[in-house]
Amino acid sequence: GEPGRETPHLDQMAREGLLVPSMYASAPLCSPARAALLTGRLPVRNGFYSDNDPGRNAYTPQEIVGGIADWELLLPELLKQKNYTSAIIGKWHLGHQDQYLPLKHGFDYFFGSTNCHFGPYDDVKKPNIPVFRNEKMVGRYYEEFSIADNESNFTRLLTEEAVAFIKDQEGKEDPFFLYWTPDSTHAKTYSSAAYRGTSGRGSYGSAVQELDAGAGAILQQLRDSGLENDTLVVFTSDNGAALVSKFDGGSNGPLLCGKQTTFEGGMRVPGIVWWPGTIEPNTVTQQVISQMDFLPTFLQLAGIELPQDRLFDGIALGQSLLNTDLHIARPVFLYRGDILMAVRRGPYKMHLWTWNAPQSELDDGIDFCPGQRQENITTSFQFDHRDSPLLYDIVADPAERYLISENSEEYKDIVPKLQQIVGDHESDMVKGSPELNWCDTAVMHWAPPGCDELGKCLDVPESNPYRCVWDH
Amino acid sequence: GEPGRETPHLDQMAREGLLVPSMYASAPLCSPARAALLTGRLPVRNGFYSDNDPGRNAYTPQEIVGGIADWELLLPELLKQKNYTSAIIGKWHLGHQDQYLPLKHGFDYFFGSTNCHFGPYDDVKKPNIPVFRNEKMVGRYYEEFSIADNESNFTRLLTEEAVAFIKDQEGKEDPFFLYWTPDSTHAKTYSSAAYRGTSGRGSYGSAVQELDAGAGAILQQLRDSGLENDTLVVFTSDNGAALVSKFDGGSNGPLLCGKQTTFEGGMRVPGIVWWPGTIEPNTVTQQVISQMDFLPTFLQLAGIELPQDRLFDGIALGQSLLNTDLHIARPVFLYRGDILMAVRRGPYKMHLWTWNAPQSELDDGIDFCPGQRQENITTSFQFDHRDSPLLYDIVADPAERYLISENSEEYKDIVPKLQQIVGDHESDMVKGSPELNWCDTAVMHWAPPGCDELGKCLDVPESNPYRCVWDH
Fold this sequence. Notes:
2 copies of one chain form a homodimer. Chain A is an alpha+beta fold. Chain A folds into 2 domains: 289 residues, Alkaline Phosphatase, subunit A (3-Layer(aba) Sandwich), CATH 3.40.720.10; 89 residues, Arylsulfatase, C-terminal domain, CATH 3.30.1120.10. In chain A, strand 5 and strand 6 form a beta hairpin. Chain A is globular and about 70 Å long. The two termini of chain A are 25 Å apart. The mean pLDDT of chain A is 96. Chains A and B meet through loops of A and loops of B. Chains A, B: This is N-acetylgalactosamine-6-sulfatase-like.
């Protein structure tokens, strides 16, 4: 978004690799998008949703009772068939109770946090979020891992950890999977002292610059370790920019609205694929890609069969990635919670429902579409367009500004085809048990594993489960 | 705007040169912006405006009686002091009657058109626009220079002409100034057969791709001629994307509204400066630059004194261009016609007036801010904010989405300073005689110089001057 060329390393990565302008997040919010990325399945299937109210975006705050279900197979679990060593370095966000932690779900190594770095908290109403190394906490944000005045070394630490992990893989026979997931560009944004005040975009810009430098350091370590021709690297984001965070939230460029919505600003995300020697430098693909495609695609490239006991929403796109002229017609279904809001396929996007934020939130200044009001579209309620879906040519009109008229031949030709695709999708849908319905202050990380060794255990309050409230 | 990397040559130019994210056109419409670029003076000073109605954007259609005044000194006239040979290859647009043609105003060579390529016309109500070589027409658009089904060789011709002109300069002692101004990205957009269907953005994308290839060919000829270290090249545009033209109009990325408005989408334009060996590759400047700065800056770099007998709105920025850490505080005044709508200075932009299009035009689907409705800002009438100007931090908020509150300390500190700057500007303002008030079908190019040799003279109708109508 910042027109000041503040991401030299990612720009370089794009020049050396493949740019994917049509990359879609699996959900317009963090946790469900990440759960879908690692399972290859929509949140509504893998349980990362709530049905307390229809169409709400839910995630995993400290109070969440649920997490990623045992039954779900995560990418690192599947990669074990070819002896991959897997590490997550950064934010996990798929449940923080013991049974949900990364090492229970296929990861061999974990350094980072279970939840977002929100805070600081007071240890009475809420404890600060712990940072884990493997199965034990090593401290907490704002305590052992300081974040003060938007300054923190944490992205630098995550970069050093990632670089060290790659260095460790040198000369090993087994392959590896590294899932690097910094959370510094999330309000409240933070960066190291070296990046303070270096950007015209304030604290957000600094966080992006340090993230960019981290990506650059990881690619450089791959080169230094002689692994660059044997490693596929993907850069992306779990949702569009959080316009509600104003200057702390980035920009979606021309795209409509932002995070939390199923407009392009919420779900169209950066996509860079890098694999020297295999992927041609300076290429672009118009292939529509969902982040749920990573799992089937990575398995395909690793020579691992996709499990046959469940439906996957992602499809294997190895052929298309390696041949940018080949466009596989794959629909992408865009949900808020358990409601199918829209579908993208080929050059078209069809909205069945549209929604910004409820009026109560708009009154509080919570607006996911600031300055982008469109009649009957960016409304304060879920607007039902199912009888006359909205149709856009999203290639010619990525900003969703020019509705294709219901009276046009194009509309009459395309909408029934997309409705057929939606019908097929819905007839196959078996919803997972909603993991994000229940909250309880007792499940917060008062006393995570390892707290005793650090003398950092807090008293756990009495359990009192309640329905989580998701406003949007 | 197209996220598909469709401008490889301009991207390369930016990598080899200096990116200017804060480049401003001199007006939100073509003719006045071009008149200001070549004079270094605001349209309201050089006469390229109308006062038939306040705040209307006027330009030079076929019916226009006026043109660039004799008294104005154009860049090529001033460069004559150092024996520059000057060529304009492309669209002129500063008046088409004999006295206004390029060779009357300092250019030594002209190939291109006097007006836009709108048409085809019927030779009864309107003739097609002629193409000139120097002082004589060599044919007309849609006739000798075909444009059919968005296909035309014209951009290729302009590129060949520019390349040939540079080649001609090889080994000459005198320096040269080339003003290359294709008009193919203007609706109705056109490109050569080789570029048909090559872009995801349709005909507009194809036109941009061919424009990009043209820029690449020009830079390559400079290299081939061994002139690359001795030539300063600037790439820019005369206004923001014409959102009213929908898919034929491009995208302004995150910027608010488009061409015809003084929001960023109307006036913030591409800026790339290229001068190998002098300007560092891969650099960015946060210097705020107006296109009116080119004239004083070019003169400064050529060692020519700025005339002292008139006020210039541009200032010499050579020092800042060559030292990107040096930011010269220069205000940019944004006008619609004769009304000062806004001022940009440093990180701030202050709106005194805002306006989209009149209701009558909105009713006709003419909307310069599609999908971007903001209360009391993107209105159908000129909204007077002079008592409480709107203030934006345009560095942090280039999309003009987040008003700085009137109650904030920042507002109370900055607005009086900007009002002082506006007061100084207005106290020095001597408006030029408005050249764009009068229209007359008799002045259309029925019988341009050279028509007799081609047997293409048309009957000139009776003169019947009338006030031009400018709706927006």
